[in-house]
Amino acid sequence: MAIHLEEYKEILEDLPHDAQDVLEASWHEAARVFSSRGLDNYLKGAVALHHLGRGDDLVVTYLQEMPEVARAIGEDTLPDVVTFLLSMASKTSGQVLTLIVGTAPLAAQRLGDESLFRAYLNVLQVMLAQAPRGLRPMLENLDRLLTQLTLGGFRRWVNWGAQAYKSDFEGQVRYFSLQSPDALSVLQAERKGTLFVDVQRRLNIYLRAMWGRDFFLRPTAGDYESREGLKPYIERFVIHIADAYDDYRSQGDETPADAVVSGVELYRAAANHCAAHLVFTQKPLSMETLDIAQMAIIEAVEDARVEALACAQFPNMRSSWLALHPPADYSEPESVGDLLNRLARALLELDPRDPHPWVQQGVALFHAQEDLSSNQISWNIGVELSHSLATLPLPEFNPRTDLLRAIYRDDNRTVWESEEYDLEAALEATWAPKQVRKKVSLIEMVNTLDYEFAGDDAQEIWVLPTEFYLDQEGVTINELEGKTPVSDPFHYHEWDYQIQLERPSWVTVLERQPKLGDLETIERIIVDHKPVISRLKFLIESMIPQGMQRLRRQEDGDELDINAAIRAMVDIRTGQQPDTRIMMRYKRNVRDLAVMVLLDMSESANDKVRGHDYSIMDLTRSATVLLSDALDRIGDPFALHGFCSDGRHDVHYYRFKDFDQPYNDLVKARLAGMQGSYSTRMGAALRHAGEYLAQQHKNKKILFIITDGEPADNDTRDPQYLRHDAKRAVEELARNGVSTYALSLDPHADQYVSRIFGANNFTVLDQVERLPEKLPMLYMGLTR
To answer: Helix, strand, or coil here: 644?
Structure first.
């Protein structure tokens, strides 16, 4: 359900009038960017800045600019910005603080990563302590600075000016406003060739076109501490790559112009190499029993393996990678690193000419492999080469200097599995008692049950398929404990859009018995909606199948149509052209479909409808009762299910009516007892509902979902994650022959519901109070 500004009335009263006007104007945009937690931090930050007493401009600028910061790098940086401003309030004026907030979106967009943005705030903090007079002119030139410098270069440029003009206040102003020769010369010295933020979009499109999938790229401040920078690396399926690259000159200044590799090509080579690791590596290698030299050799062979597989699909990648290797040097090696780099180049070349026996051995072992799909061959070749390396008269391997020098290659941390020892997990796996859960018969439960009131941590839990009544008449164990029985867990995969992979058995669905409510609630619904029921009466009667229907005047049919045959004979006798449609056919009029109605029972369904004293859950209940009554009279097989979620390990699923159950007082009592709670993990519920629809042998299967908000859950911070998973679940249902249609009660749902369900498979109900009337009419229009 959309979050309304009126819900934060108490916070609004603490803000100045100008800030309230700005907040009302920008609220719609803020609600699209922030989660509910982010909105709370957003408004509390505004109140904290107002209480700071540094003017209304600071609060107004904060309210205007922070949504853009969140859009660029996420909402998690918002508390850091507010904390930074509060800590700096005693060191500078309110105008400078306002300027910091006003330029924050620019910094966020140019840096492109929340960790880099936090490092940028640290640079500002150092500058306020060492060169406070230069902060205002520097912020006024921030666009030019971040367009030409990486974060590391920006930091060194700031530190140089702060140290050079420590006691010269006028010099600070000239330096940081880029009006002094020193500022321009240091700027030129720290300037990098190609910034990641300028090519990020092109890189994403390029990788998608090459590999047919998306990769998640993030910049790193590779040169934050030194200009040499860091190698690319892969962590949790995310490719981390340097925030800037200079053009690569293999021979330094003497490199011919046609041999210079541009920064863009260097980015492509590095991204392709990391992508090859992600695509062609199924599981990491174990580093047990290996020394650092063996690991280095295995990494070089593994790089060659994934590159060979990539070159088999994209042959021109070989030349782009070879151009970034050090020039071939066949002189006598002085270190293990020299041999490793020669081996790396030889394994990539089509016709290697390196004369060294150790390199030739590595090439021969690699080319002898018929199947490169498994990374175990890298382990085997690396270990064998390490034994041969030990016989060579070379200094001991040094992990700091004997590195692969190809600039595009990553640090290979993704090659190895983590061997960190988890004491608690180890104790739980080896010493903790295992809980046994099994189903038993009634006789076993009665005769051998030790303790019927044992807790959830009991050594054994026995499950009886039916309720177990104790000696007290009409009382069960579950009623005494206040617990409702749950089903065995159902595990479903979930789609992670960032890594473009399914997480197997990631979500657990537990079916629970619905609570029973008062049947008078259902009777009141029928009485209150008598006008709607009357309008639906004739439409329902027209949709009821009429059994066998006789179709006359057919060319082919089951028997002769006597009346048509007589007319044809009369036409023949009178010399006219007869009508050849003299047959009659019988058609069985049936509706071959199954319908599942899936109800969103999240906590937001308990919210009151604006301007009324009833809740969204009350309207959903009324609409479901009217639709169920219509479906029961038409005769369409249907099921009524509901869901909510408390994290991925506990998706609550309720079955109010199954396909083979009659629509009776028990179903109505379950509908009367519906209550909203927890969150909306929609993808798992859709997949579970699809399992029940798959059991129906009908030509047409329809899944209606009634929801009041977008997919969300308490263990997922990324608002796009569950949207993409729900979209994936809808696509899976479509492949299995299930049509999914959504009825959204969120007036702002157009921005996401079309992407999940498709352009023609949803309806957004702006007037929620019309739901009981709209739902049956919508169903009949779609299934007529």
So the answer is: strand
Environment class of residue 739 by beta-carbon count within 10 Å: exposed (0-12), middle (13-18) or buried (19+)?
middle
The three-class DSSP label of residue 12 is helix
With tokens 């081996």, the residue in question is: 343
What per-residue confidence (pLDDT) applies to 255? 80
Whether this prediction's pTM lies above 0.90 is answered by no
Identity at 529, one-letter amino acid code: H
Q: What 3-state DSSP class applies to 317?
A: helix
Is residue 509 scored above 90 in pLDDT? yes
Q: Which of 676, 564, 661 is nearest to 620 (CA)?
A: 676
- Phi and psi, residue 127, nearest 5°: -65, -40
Spatial distance between the Cα atoms of 251 and 328, rounded to a whole number of angstroms: 11
Residue ranges in 587-717 assigned as alpha helix (H)? 616-634, 665-672, 682-694
Q: Is 708 exposed, middle or buried (0-12, 13-18, 19+ CB in 10 A)?
A: buried
The answer to which of 321-330, 417-426, 507-516 has the lowest mean pLDDT is 417-426
Q: Distances from the Cα of 151 to the Cαs of 26, 95, 280, 738, in angstroms?
A: 30, 24, 33, 51
* Type of residue found at 608: K
- Least Cα distance to 678 among 641, 728, 720, 715 occurs for 715
Angle CA 527–531–537, to nearest 5: 105
**Reported confidence tier of residue 419, pLDDT bands at 50, 70, 90:** very low
Residue 271 burial (CB < 10 Å; 0-12/13-18/19+)? buried
Residues in the chain: 784
DSSP string, 369-407: -S--S-THHHHHHHHHHHHHHTTS--PPP-TTTS----T
Give the end-to-end CA distance of the chain in Å, rounded to a whole number.
Answer: 31
Spell out where 210-356 has E strands. 216-220, 233-235, 238-242, 244-245
Pairing relationship of beta strands 490-496 and 501-512 according to DSSP bridges: antiparallel
- For tokens 């071959």, the residue is 592
Please compute Rg for the chain using Cα positions: 35
Q: State phi, psi for 22 to the nearest 5 degrees.
A: -65, -40
Element (DSSP H or E) covering residue 439: strand 436-439
pLDDT in tens, 558-594: 788 888 888 989 999 898 888 888 888 866 656 778 8
Which is nearest to 219 in space by CA: 81, 320, 109? 109
Which amino acid, one-letter code, is at 198?
D
The sign one gets for the Cα dihedral 484, 487, 489, 493 is: negative
pLDDT for res 458: 59
Residue 586: phi and psi, rounded to 5, are -105, 130
Residues near 149 by beta carbon (within 8 Å), at least 6 away in sequence: 157, 187, 190, 191, 192
Q: What is the DSSP letter of 742?
A: E
- In this prediction, residue 779 carries a pLDDT of 72
Q: What is the mean pLDDT of residues 486-498?
A: 86
Q: Of 577, 617, 631, 612, which Cα lies nearest the Cα of 706?
A: 617
Q: Return the ∠ at Cα 767 (arms to 603 and 784), rounded to 5°.
A: 100
- What distance in Å separates the CA atoms of residue 322 and residue 315, rounded to the nearest whole number? 12
- Kindly give, in sequence order, each residue whose CB lies less than 8 Å from that of residue 596, ignoring residues fewer than 6 positions away: 638, 639, 641, 689, 692, 693, 701, 702, 703, 704
Q: Stretch 295-304: mean pLDDT, rounded?
A: 92
- Chain segment 128-154, per-residue pLDDT in tens: 888 888 888 999 888 888 888 888 888
